[in-house]
From TrEMBL:
Domain (Dynamin N-terminal) ranges: 56-272
Pfam name, any one: Dynamin_N
InterPro entries, per database record: Dynamin_N (IPR045063), P-loop_NTPase (IPR027417), TRAFAC_Dynamin-like_GTPase (IPR051943)
Domain of life: Bacteria
SUPFAM superfamilies reported for this sequence: P-loop containing nucleoside triphosphate hydrolases
Originating organism: Candidatus Accumulibacter proximus
Protein name per Swiss-Prot or TrEMBL: Dynamin family protein
Amino acid sequence: MTLAQHFAAYSQWRAQISGVLGEFAEWLVENELTDAQTDRRIVQLLEKLREDRLHVAFVAEFSRGKSELINAIFFAGYGNRILPSTAGRTTMCPTELMFDKAKAPSIELLPIESRESNASISEYKRFAAEWQIVPIDTSSAEAMQDALRHVSDVIRVDRATAENLGFAVGDGESAVFRVDADGAVEIPRWRHAVINFPHPLLEQGLVILDTPGLNAIGTEPELTLSLLPNAHAVLFILAADAGVTQSDLTVWREHIGTMGGRKKGRIVVLNKIDSLWDELKSAAEIDAEIARQVDTCAWTLNLPEDQIFPVSAQKALVAKINDDGELLRRSRLAELEHALSDQLIPAKQEIVRDNTDAEFSDCYQRTHSLLESRLAGLREQVTELTELRGKNKGVVEYMMGKVRVEKEEFEAGLQRYYAVRSVLSQLTNNLFGHLGVDALGLLSSSTREAMVHATFSTTLSEAMMHFFDAARGNLSRSQGEVTEIMTMMEAIYKKFAVEHGLKLGAPIGFSLMRYEREIDRLDHWCSTHINTMFQLLTHEKGQLTQRFFGEVAVQVRKVFERANRDAGSWLKAIMAPMEIQFREHQIQLKRRLESIKRIHQASDTLEERITELQHVEEKLVLQLQALGRIGQGFNDVLRQTVSGEGLRSAA
């Protein structure tokens, strides 16, 4: 099964889940079982599935054949190279290939001068006017090539301008950016490129990140701070004839191999094995030489050998275009494509499955508990009315008094519920007092002031370290508030379940651990790229301060913003079951009292009311059965796995 077929099966699975969720939402509306919280969660879940993306990043030093590999894997069907691929550097800026059907095929280019501000690439993506748009004519491979060559554009500026834009200018021959004989420095024209292209895989949600030579990666920190860590797979390309060079090893250790210690989804491609094809050697000797290079790379990078794939991207592209099966076999590209299919897509499916299952299960369980509560209340009412058959008026009055007492007890319980809401509101304020962006804003201001007034490099370093320690402290205190809220809600759930027979289950949990790990990752990046003795001694205080807040602090803020949104959603979710059950119980008590009142006033309505309630009971039983079928159908689709044969039901 090809990567395209594998991805198509994954997209089909995702569409099936969306279909079941849509049916669930319609069924809730038809049966008048919906509420604002459940509606919002289902809509958000459908939106996540619709916008689901699979991010694959291609990383390499220049001249490793990275763009050619992308051409061979994804664009050979066009009968030519689509991405520019020539000797030397071709991709001069980080380039995202994706498809948004709301936009025409085009290239969006962010000018390099945008670096003069402190705004990140993600912030610039909100302002379309800041980007230059180049249309893409998809009817012609040559026209597409011409348009896509823009990612290779360069400009010549003086040394001061280059350094002001963040480029490390050197004087030696090995320097990536150096002053030429005319006193100018050649730098990329664009800071970032987004190619909107109607390729079948891109249409299904694949996003390809093509990076410039990473020995220049420090010039765009967002690449290593956000884009690469969030990629589901990173393909690190080496040259087979050179193996792991010192610069390759630096890139691997600083930007790829150390990202949270992850090895899953990290694939090394040993490209250009055709350089080892020697007509004076036998096939066995050539294979042995390639195997030695794989073994050496595995040892150097501390990776298992099955995560290193020797290929010839150039020969694979030629083979696909010319339909040369033997050359394609020798290129070994199929093994890499199978690895992408077999490792990447199931891993992504597992993430989507877990997230979707948790959200759906909570909505499903809430609806199931509501129906069970209604059914239990209704059956209690039928039992009460059945017991009134043939009884005198005094007995009816007694039953009416009994229900009134229950109603009064429940109303007293409501007062306790409102008290719980008040306590929860106070705990929530405490939570957002630590977790909120206002607290982080105060921390950022005090850190900036400390860095501006620092007189020694150690003071500057301590200010950065204090920033992360304080951020972690805020998260730790926030987790304490979360734990206190959970403890209180667990006790309240149990109390009201016992006192009023509410079917509440257990409150949904929440953890800030993922955000703490993200802060740790950003702290590690800062301590290896900004807060180092070399940086402190070789850069001005103002420049380091600007880098810290323009590159690191902005990412920390994003972490806290995500934590705020998720905590807010959790607080709504934790209160919703109680609110729904209280409202439902209140309605049931009111109906019971009204039924007995009517029977007290006219005894001939007793049988009619019992019959009426029995019909409602039958309807509730049917609703529970229908809900069970929806839940089973959802689980059947969710447990399907994407395999070499397409979608396969779990055993």
